[in-house]
Amino acid sequence: MDNVTVFTHPLIQHKISILRDKKTGTNEFRALIEEIAMLMGFEALRDLPLQDVEVETPIETCMTPMIAGKKMAVVPILRAGLGMVNGILALVPSAKVGHIGLYRDEVTHEPHEYYCKLPSPIEQRTIVVTDPMLATGGSAVAAVDFIKQYGGKNIKFMAIIAAPEGLKRLHEAHPDIQIYVGHLDRELNENAYICPGLGDAGDRIFGTK
Ligand code: PRP
Ligand code: URA
Questions:
Q1: Could you tell me the domains of the chain?
Q2: Which residues have CB under 8 Å from 40's CB, separation 6+?
Q3: Which of 5, 20, 104, 145 is catalytic?
């Protein structure tokens, strides 16, 4: 699929396996989500534009490349996407952070919006949307719909685990965005949970039940 990257890097796969383990506690789970986001972000941001700037080294003055401008936005889908934000900010500390609040109805599995605040000018920013879980794809499609309604154009979506159904739905709804997935799992179960998955990402990051 064009515009879809499914990671195979051993460090990412190893860390996802620890996330899956139900014995992994909140502290370690949270740290791993952040680390995986950083490793994925390293690849997802490989097309950030560079510009040459003048720097004086102890030896001489040279022209050397730095990231052009400061126009990036990280947009976590609340709540679980919040867990990935610091991993991206470790790479680009100057990025602004927007928030989209969505929750999945437990019966219909449809997303409901309860909050949306994006940094401006959103249309000039590279936007990295984060959510560890891409299950039915309903939340991801709704989040990208909102961002586009507000004018967002250059959008990247990062999920740590995806179900085939959700990846297909997001790609079909928004074929123009770049999608990055840490691991593509087997399927959804009857409750729209990813199998084998890791359970409820928000609950495991924040220690709720
Ligand atoms: C989870 C997850 C995604 C969504 C994925 O959030 O973090 O946002 O479900 O499911 P979907 O692809 O079927 O839409 P949840 O609604 O449980 O909210 P939370 O992050 O507040 O726990
Ligand atoms: N949301 C989660 O947190 N986990 C799933 O498996 C599906 C949706």
A1: 4-47+71-206 (3.40.50.2020)
A2: 7, 12, 87, 158, 160, 180, 182
A3: 104
